[in-house]
Amino acid sequence: MNTNPEFPAEEPANLKFLRRLVTTLTATMIVGLVVMITLLVIRLNSATPDLALPEYIELPDGTRTTAFTQAPTWYAVVTADDRILIFNRDSGQLTQEISVNSRP
Questions:
Q1: Other C-beta atoms within 10 Å of 77: how many?
Q2: How many CB atoms lie within 10 A of CB 88?
Q3: Running DSSP on this structure, what letter comes out for residue 49?
């Protein structure tokens, strides 16, 4: 054993391997995290101009809305009287009406 402080003892080979392994894994995790954050930012910043909200929606008289959803070719309005009204995105015309019986 080396007791001279001017010449530190050489560390064992398995400790060198472990130190390099931990350093490599840390660097890999940091790079992976940066890549994931970058991809998330790119994905969230991508615009979807096809899904712009319609300027107005003509609903049947006395209809009260509770929800709205849309897709590239249609949009739907859920009404308070348990109906789903599906409209064509291009023409704005009501194309389908679905009655939802939510009460037993």
A1: 19
A2: 13
A3: G
3-class state of residue 69 by DSSP: strand
Contact 65, 79 (CB under 8 A): yes
Q: Write out 38-75 in H/E/C secondary structure.
A: HHHHHHHHCCCHHHCCCCCCCCCCCCCEEEEEECCCEE
C-alpha distances out from residue 18 to 10, 26, 29, 50, Å:
15, 12, 16, 53
More confident residue, 66 or 52: 66
Q: What is the chain's alpha carbon radius of gyration, rounded to the nearest angstrom?
A: 31
Instruction: Map out the domains of the chain as residue ranges.
Output: 10-46, 50-99
Evaluate if pTM is beyond 0.85.
no
